[in-house]
């Protein structure tokens, strides 16, 4: 009898451990795939747990550098922000992990991929659309959407019982009354007590950032340098950091200490539900502020407007799981073209939750101090402005006449 | 001989005082118009100064309530923000003052209106397009764009000399090395030492907000209530405030004490120059944060996207001086329609430069806690998500096939 | 034993007759609903057929006037056009029929609604989203998406056999090698030999319009009058027609005789497939041409641009089945506001497939012949254009300098 | 005494001949520049005329190939269309001619450029913004905007008198009661009797296209092949044409004979006036129809939508004279990226004003006949559509609940 092989996106937690066991019951061979995408996890312990439950293999891959350079950097360069506030930390991780899943499936000749994402969320969509884009022939099994599975596991109690019956070790730490998802870019919190959007997030929820009120009284000053819209160095005092992963970890540390990058929002999920989420994204927030500043400084006014409309589109694509879609790929290429000119340095001060822009400079900005100066005429003839205004007024005067007609 | 009559937008400062005198030289009758739009000004002293110089009349009008209810409230409701960051404080004041100028011109049968705005700035455009929209027959004289005037007054020294020669009193306070413009909504700073975009704004520049580092260690909690997207009450502790002007002044006070609403940006002026501006907008910033939160919470996902595209357009219209344009009027009406549903309360905490959203509630939000809950199925069948994803994947799989073809 | 009641959108054809029988087999009570939406159909014969098969009731409703005034008129007013070419004839009919289905379900206390639309098409989506919008509690049964049904009826032969076995009369006319859907606005053709997008549509396919080559050698001239963007009269020679349904039927007749409104396109279905469709839309095409002409003539330039962006959005909403969605309702309201000003008359000549615009007039247009005249200065000072151009050139000159820097 | 040198965009007509003489009076050295951009003109005669009046040199440049390959082809590839109808024939010619003017100025060390465009039109803007983009240091003299010139030449009579006084030969053909502008792509007609937008264009106005009613009774069939969105061949019967200029001339001939590509519209000029124009664009119209068809056929649905939004922006840029602007250059690059996939053949039939699409094919289209076929399941599971619809319905059902709340 041939056995079907499934690559399971394994987290080490209760859900995916039970799913692993459940696949074994159904005579699948299960290879667990874990991406180290910067979450705080004991990967070796998780490996042992999976092997003990019965995984035929556990693949652990450090994708942090790839995550930073191919996904986070692209998001910063593009200025991605969902519904005016969310920096897309989870959305960016999913396509990155999917690449690992598909690669693992190919290397192990597995036809199936599985994950523990639920049926109401965005992550199922992001995983699956990414996987299908990368390999249209792969088959995905999402147990939390299978009648057979959900009928058997109606709640956490059923999972705990199943774990206990099957010798699956369960963490002794009591589960927090919310769920979370972590990676190098952010931690997101939702569900449980957060489902009431008027409930305040408790202060002990945050793991990545200090409470701004408990942050140091002394601010820190840094400089972030961009080339073509991508961060290339971070300078703190005399130290200059150029390695992307190091830079990002450093900014997470600084931002975390100073309580930077927390938001509490409701958002519209792709499937049409509104949900409430609390996020902390220290490095991402700092870089977003710096990049926005340099971008408006560098880009031509009208190019900026085109780019903004593309950024809004791409933010939706990425949130909805369309990273590898034709439109996702296309718009990213267009944005790279726009960012060619976004090169320079932004000075920032970070203090108790705030990221203040102090100044910026660029070797190629279209900013022209002589031209704008109150004290110089430069190539500017003030009387031209009269014509400019008068011509713009033609249409407005006509409209006034029209309004008097009706 | 008949004398031409001009309404001069008078500030009490050096420039408009010299312009007043210059008009008198040219045999105009000059009526000075001053709008009290919330700036810190001794209006009575300014009146005496103008009369002394030779104005035939000085009209001082308190437009603060009109400014808040017709302009600021509309901007908050619409979520206006220019180039991702600027809350448009000056841009909103110009059409409000223009209404006063045109009214004053009509009441005094004056054919001319004049102002002291410079030829490189946005304000000349905002004033003039607003005035022409309201009265296509008015004639506007902008001395700073007249060869005759600029040849005579090439710099501040020429103005000081002219003032001294003509008995125009000059403030003994030395001029700050930047220019500023203030109203109830904000103070803007530009020019002078700020013209180098890498120069830090000096800490003594800010007049409306305390340095966040010197702000109180205790945060303050407030609740802001909106109806149809408009602020209707602010609650601080046991006190509830419902008068628009009072609410706005109160939020300015709270925001000012806690160092909220400062930004340092470069922006693209309408006429195509890039300029650097520093702004402080305490109440505006608090309301913008609160409104954005409630809006995403309340509005349907797709309606929100349409509204966002309209808001981006309106932000440009307002910045560029097209408040009274056909497109400005039209888009405002559309936004009011969208905002019908934006009703509810947002809880905020204000602390050393930060405005944290703590929670929100609404009697009419589309948020459905049961539907989104991880613990309830409500009207949701998880297997539907499979079909949803598979259908969305069709296009992506086809694209993968295409890519293998080329 | 209680019997479940289903309202079946009945066409009288083979598919829905078999579905009717199939429901009876499954012990449903079936009420057949037929909307007379202008298709060429013998409704009485269809009624007898349904009753003979076993329908408990057949409801036939003439919705033509409602279709024209609430759906077609709205589409003309909004200028709806999908992917640059398709006038949305089928898409507009579906929400109109859905209103009838839901009303019928309410009046007959039926919980279920069913239709014969296939699983790959747009119409299933349009029917169901419309019904769910109007009544979230209704249950929809789409047999062509049920495993049980599709396994049994794998092709047309199975349906013919089932009909024959169950005494369901079958049309003796051989089926055309394509499928079609007709209503007052258009006939659409797809599938069969049209599935190859390089195959030419055969000349005997078209039922609503004459081959332009066989159309009369004499053109016809008409005038279409609009108020607030809605057609209010059509004048042909001395005759003036004001009843919406009559006007539309008349324009269909004229357009049909002169071979107007045929298109052959591929389009992107909502579910992500590309399909090929051939359409004929005589009256709709004539009105679309006339409305577009009057709209650009009447509306302010910038209002027109906002309206165009809303029209593009609404075209997608309508095509995808979101007529009754929040965004559909919202955008329609915005468009009505824009169209307030679109009032006037357009002169057209119709000739062998062409609709030529000959001229237009409006009592309220912003067109100002004096202002634009080469022979008059009107309120226009040519030297203003110099300033206008020079100011616009600032940004371009700066960009030239930048390009020389890099 | 040094003489200033001016490059005059010379047409051979009355206006530019008088301008030439006027410059000579003002002691300028004048070099006349004529671009052969496909207009029907006796260039040699014009050269002799200019030399006789006193031009120091006449430069005649055949830019037809450059015009087709760099401007017209780009417009076809981008799908440019202004305000839903105008194919931008004049707008595309202006930047092409400006390149020649600037090159001529550089080669002859001239600081000045001049043209005969009027102060109310678009062409002045297009010429000057193009020139300033290409050389920020050039000075442009637009006599029709100079007080000195317009005061002297208040109308045609003054020009005729000046010509007669100065021995400038004047055409004996009486001037048509409208003005026209011609190039390889189109002829535009405006002004004079066309200024009343309700006046019909007289039948003898059209020079490039036959009256459709007088066109041949036999249609012609052609095939147009595109690669990456650019036309690469036209096939008529057995003949295949591959040279861009030849292809375009051939299509003009075919389209002209069959009366294709006439429009009568009002449009919004950049400076805010509404004007009425009549255009004939035979080859451009044929190619636009063919390209649109292939584009929707080839491009991914969502990429098409992004591209459409860019095309709308670019159409405005080009109309307004911003061909060489940063945004113009940027958006063109983005569109080229999108068009990579637009490769294939479109079959057309041309008949008495109509261009009918008969079919299309592509080696790389995303069209998948198997997938869309009613007769095959392919990789499609009909039950997935149920989930797709149900998930989309969530939001609509919630909105229904909300509406019942208010």
Automatic annotation (TrEMBL), chains A, B, C, D:
It catalyses: L-citrulline + L-aspartate + ATP = 2-(N(omega)-L-arginino)succinate + AMP + diphosphate + H(+). Gene3D superfamilies: Argininosuccinate synthetase, chain A, domain 2, HUPs, Single helix bin. It is an enzyme of class 6 (ligase). Pathway: Amino-acid biosynthesis; L-arginine biosynthesis; L-arginine from L-ornithine and carbamoyl phosphate: step 2/3; Nitrogen metabolism; urea cycle; (N(omega)-L-arginino)succinate from L-aspartate and L-citrulline: step 1/1. CDD domains: ASS. Residues 5-169 form the Arginosuccinate synthase-like N-terminal domain. InterPro entries: Arginosuc_syn_C, Arginosuc_syn_N, Arginosuc_synth, Arginosuc_synth_CS, Arginosuc_synth_type_1_subfam, AS_cat/multimer_dom_body, Rossmann-like_a/b/a_fold. GO terms for molecular function: argininosuccinate synthase activity; ATP binding. Keywords: Amino-acid biosynthesis, Arginine biosynthesis, ATP-binding, Ligase, Nucleotide-binding, Urea cycle. Pfam families: Arginosuc_syn_C, Arginosuc_synth. It comes from the Eukaryota. One of its GO terms (cellular component) is cytoplasm. Residues 178-399 form the Arginosuccinate synthase C-terminal domain. GO terms for biological process: argininosuccinate metabolic process; L-arginine biosynthetic process; urea cycle. Signal peptide: none annotated. SUPFAM superfamilies: Adenine nucleotide alpha hydrolases-like (SSF52402), Argininosuccinate synthetase, C-terminal domain (SSF69864). Its EC number is 6.3.4.5. The keyword ATP-binding applies. Homotetramer. This is Argininosuccinate synthase. It comes from Exocentrus adspersus.
